[in-house]
Amino acid sequence: MIKVESISKSYQATKALNRISFEVTQGELFGLIGPDGAGKTSLMRILMTLLVPDEGKASMSGLDVVRDYKQIRQLVGYMPGRFSLYQDLSVEENLEFFATVFGITIAENYELIKDIYVQIEPFKKRLAGKLSGGMKQKLALSCALIHKPEILVLDEPTTGVDAVSRKEFWEMLKKLQQQGITILVSTPYMDEASLCDRVALMQKGEVMEIDSPARIVENYTRTLLAARSDNMNRLIQDVRNWDEVESAYAFGQFIHVTPKRNEMEAVELEKFLMTQKHEKLQVNEISPGIEDVFMALMKEKE
Amino acid sequence: MKTPVISVKNLVKKFGSFVANDHLTFDVYRGEIFGFLGANGAGKTTAMRILCGLSAPTSGELMVGGYDVYSQTEQIKRNIGYMSQKFSLYEDMTIAENIRFYGGIYGLSVKERKAKEEVLLSKLSLQGERDKLIASLPLGWKQKLAFSVALLHDPQIIFLDEPTGGVDPITRRQFWDFIYEASADGKTIFVTTHYMDEAEYCDRVSIMVDGRIAALDTPEKLKKQFEAADMNEVFLKLARKAKATE
Amino acid sequence: MNRFWGFVKKEFYHIFRDARTMIILFGIPIAQLLLFGTVITNEIKDAHIAIYDQSKDEVTQEITTKLLSSGYFVLDQYLESTADIEAIFKKGKVREVLVFEAGFAQSLEKEGKAKVQVIADASDPNVGKLLANYTSGIINDYMLKEMGEMQLPMQIKPEVRMYYNEGLESVHMFVPGIMAMILMLISAMMTSISITREKELGTMEILLVSPLRPVQIILGKVAPYLGLSIINAVVILLIGHWVFGVPIAGSWVLLMLESILFILMALCLGILISTMAKTQMVAMFISMIALMLPTILLSGFIFPIENMPVPLQILSHAMPPRWFIVILKNIMLKGTGLLYVWKETLILLGMAVLFTAIAVKKFKTRLE
Asked: Could you list the residue range(s) of the whole structural domain that residue A247 is in?
């Protein structure tokens, strides 16, 4: 459905995208995972025909993003990063406006947005600017879906949104996917990667890895140890200062440690930390998460 | 033994008939990293603004850094530092110009400021870059610099409003190293975040739901109390409960 | 078509829900009109003059009477020598002195010309200028009536527009100016702001990726403001006519058509501005500095074009309001038809076409 071939894009001196290639198949939920400045927005804007790439080709549903931009605009739904609805229009008026823009009525495609829209329908007379964050998002999604697009492109829909609303949003996306819509979504939250079928890990305009979240984790061969003690601050300093350790990062209540030797076992680290007089020590070997892999890939690139 | 730096008793803030903060009561102690969590629209920003002296409470007793929020907002502003992800430094000014500007705002003498500037730049090993525009720096640098600048006038308390949003995972962690360091220096850190793993790094965490503080304790105890594996689960349980009763 | 009306409806929501927009649209024009009208009429009323009549004949008497009966001048005193002139100005009360040469009537009869000197107190240059203009207007008017078509070279260069403003009500002169200014402000500034606002809010991104064509977006933006500006034009004309008694000698239909043409031109200019500006602030500044100031300063609204330095005179040709003001004055005050203003109309039309062409060309279907 979406095909990106060696796309590059620069703004003056900075290279926003450097030879990006990937494909998204029909009905897939594909995630672009990366921090700000990774090039996610630029890439999405190119696909949405809002920007022209410097090099490379891209197509949506077989249509070229530069040449056939008019047709693409008919069949793709887009939700930009910022909340971009009319704040001085009510919920209902916003939806109505976007329906007329696409030359349809709300009733025609109501089935598709029903699940989402019923949640905000009680507030349909309220101005969009007065909605809470989660409700704004639902409205924006309803508006992006009103013309029944084949492809849905969402630029950081969950940024700055609390954990509960994020969870709900992903549940909505899953439902849409079941209705056959191809979804391309970007996010800076690494933990959301596991909710996608496949992801591209992006950093500084480059794709570091593309695969299913499970395989990305599987393919990571380095040993990873998790450690905690009663003094986490000192723990992390001590681990970092040990010359057997390549890197150590805080991960919630644990520290994730990558040893230099792949064969190192948890007990070795534990022994070392005991010599440093740490108490309530807990060290295990763990399987990595997407974030561990992302960080390792980042380091490799540097 | 523990001295409260921020003391809030029965804080109420209303906007018309809407109650944004409904009788908040909590203390933040010296040197503590205090996580201030909550769903969007739960009233975090409102409370934070009041604590920074930017907005007056409707009622309640509040002391920040030993000063009264109603009558001593000027002193409060001198004793706090503030940094948010959105606004921190002027992009079209150089590193040195930004430092000088903020030093000027807080009334540092030229001598003081110069000394601080040197310490700050050498700590970040940015001596060679002082004449570079902020816009040309990588995000990670900008953030560390913004944090250091917020500390320039030696405030007792630093308010961080979603300081790590959209930042890559390595930079995010390096930023927390900075927070720990400042806390070890006796600074009190008051931080909001949407990353639940970061909630684990805080000494104590308060979770706001619908204008009230629904939970406040160390991450350890909260997890025990809510029988959750991590803070994310604690948060979801609390916020879900609120939704159910809505 | 449905899309278009949907768009227009949305624009009206924006306009009617924003109190500030409504004030700019309707409050400011009316306030400005009333303010300027009152201030300008009062400024010139009962200006004290002195006359040094070296001739004291029939003609000078008649001119004096005519001046004093105009309602703008009050005779302070007759002077007896040139030395008195400076003295009386120093007192500050008298703002203008008229000096008729000796043997005024004879030389007018024999040589077909006579000299009258108008000396105005220029400590307030605008008022001085205005008084001198009025005086020469009245004198010319007298000449025309009394002497027929005979061309009389006078020391004061006659102001052409004075001929047709017999009552010399100053309000008459400024209504066209105010109208040009207000229509320019509302049409150009409001459209440019409303388009840039969508850019700022990020909604433009959504509009661009929708099947709406740029022309549809532009028309949808322009239509509501066209309607509102027309209402505004009517309101200004009505207030001018009923409150300040400005005559509308020519055809109302032609007047409205010309106004619509000018509004369209201004709307296109607004769109052009919005293609250049990224934020509402920038759009506002460009509208203010690039449109408002020239409208006020260079269109002949306040400062007569003939008195400007040559470079500014040339520049004033590029100012659309200049042509519109000429058209308005012709239709309203002279009562002439299209036959006399076709040239100005064509110029405005040309400008409108030019601005539209550039705006459509520059309006991007993408973000870059």
From this structure: 225-286
